[in-house]
Amino acid sequence: MTKEERIKKWFSNIPDAELISMEIKMEICKKAAKKMMIIIFGLLALELVLLLMLGGGNILSRTADFLNNISIGGSHTKNHYQGVAFAGTLVCLPVLIIPLIVASIYKNKFLKSEATKIVISMKNDDTKEPHLKTLSEKNVEDILHFDNLNFKLAIIQVLMYDLKLLNSEFDIYDFADRYKEEIDTDSDIIIEPAMSFFKELEIPKKFAPYVETIYMDGGNDVYMNIIPQWDGEDETFDLNEITLTELQQFPNLKKATVMSSNLDEVKEIFDAANIEVKLL
């Protein structure tokens, strides 16, 4: 009997066993076989101890003498040795039968238990995945989407620093105290960990209606927390690109004052969204 045939035989009476892969069945069988060997040898040792205690070794000695006598007597042919082996099996059978029965019962219970756990886990995963997907989709739907980071920063200025609607204001000095590496809070270039914070910040859609105006200025708090010593003279935070999809998320946005070196193209998008826009 091959290993695969033995596995099929062992799982033949296990409910829903066909749902479990051969590799997993093989692992379960290995665990069961190891524990069965422990049970068999453990019970055999216990039986031998009991025989020694009850018979003082006489039972074992008589059994050995009996097998020795029948092996010596008679002709030394193949049939003779087969007969000796058969007799030895019959003599030892009472000792072997209990460990084998107990191990077999344990094997069936173990296989059924392990198979049930795996099948339940598989079924739970099947029902959980659509649920998780639904939650994930719901979360995405509840979060504002931005194609352009500089537009997102302008919105953060309004919601976090002007209206104070987001949970807490980002402060570069507090952030630097808690950050795992040293941060130069007098930097005149972008502090990447701070920029990463704003990039990853999720803004709930429920706050979108509160945005009525945007005013981009070099002294805005959001910029000062990214480049503390920024002089506002370069185009780092210029709004040079924007999409209509982004703007349409803000139904009450009517006016915007922006920093931009590409105002003509940006203005076309604002005009399409019926939002008045002008250059700072």
Strand order of the largest sheet: 1-2-3
Helical content stands at: 55-70%
Regarding quaternary structure, what we see is single chain
**How much beta, percentage-wise?**
under 5%
Roughly how many Å is the radius of gyration?
Answer: 40 Å
Question: Taking all residues together, what is the mean pLDDT?
Answer: 83
Please tell me what the overall shape is.
rod-shaped
- Element-by-element helix/strand order: HHHHHHHEHHEHE
Which structural class is indicated by helix and strand composition? mainly alpha
DSSP summary, beta strand count: 3
Please give the count of helices. 10
In whole angstroms, how far apart are the ends?
Answer: 85 Å
Detail the poorly predicted runs: 131-138
Report on this model:
This protein has helices spanning 3-10, 22-55, 58-72, 78-141, 149-162, 172-178, 192-200, 221-224, 244-247, 263-272; strands at residues 213-215, 255-258, 276-279. The protein folds into 2 domains: 3-137, no CATH class; 149-279, no CATH class. Helix 2 packs across helix 4 (78-141) and helix 3 (58-72) crosses helix 4. It contains 10 helices and 3 strands; from the N terminus they run αααααααβααβαβ. It has a 3-stranded parallel sheet with strand order 1-2-3. The longest helix has 64 residues, at 78-141. The protein has 280 residues and is mainly alpha-helical. Helices cover 60% and strands 4% of the residues. The protein is rod-shaped.
